[in-house]
Design goal:
The chain is an alpha+beta fold and 270 residues long. The chain is 36% helix and 15% strand.
Length: 270
Amino acid sequence: MLSTIAVPLFLSFATQTPALGDLDHGQALLKEAGGVVRVDGAWINRYSDETILKLLASGKDGFPTVDSDNVLDQWDVLAVLRAANSDLRDLVPEATHVYVAETKLDDNAEKRLTEQARIKSDDVVTSRRVFVAYALDGEDADKDRKQFVSAKEPKKRDKLKRDKKVGYVVFANLDGFRDGKHEVAFTTDKDVKITRVIVRDAQGRAPDDLNQAAQRFLGKGARGKYDELKAGGAGKAVGELSGPLSRAFLQAAESVYMYEVDERDYFAFD
């Protein structure tokens, strides 16, 4: 049975498929373990629920150690961590496989961001994780239990053909927006147009006003374009979000382009 704290977390604007667990109990266990709720979609979405349960038992890769023989305790902590982050299961529900790409901007990419996008060089994030989503057929294709593939798994990567790609997910900080601690999750299609967007604050909440404003950016974005995104409508939240969200998107898109360079090289003789 989910505790009452689950209501505002799971029924917010950014409704997501939660990991099942008692959030009150999970919060208590997390505090006891000396852990904190971490709002970092690029970090937590790297792992499946099953993998996170093992990491909670061992305390590795930035997860707190939940010292318990009862796996339900780990599930409760997992529920707390998932509730504070946007989830790939909601950002790309149609995907069965996700390639986790570690990207690094080259000099030309940095130049495009500083000269064409007019982003300050100190604000350019050169390394970023990009989640590349694919919809495959077959026995191992399950949208509810997405398979994660890394660069160290060439046999699995060989199956991730470009015609099976459904899009990209990238997480970015909203620099210059309010306290500077808001995170945005972008889903784009293969042409790098925004198809989903979720904004979360430093506590992992997805405020309705900000996310309603963020939805005005759906369909925006274009490959190779560096102008500020223009959202329709008016309002304080839209005005506040426009610049920071545009800059975050342009940086996210540049990381996608870096992945695509690697992809072309990898499948050059395919």
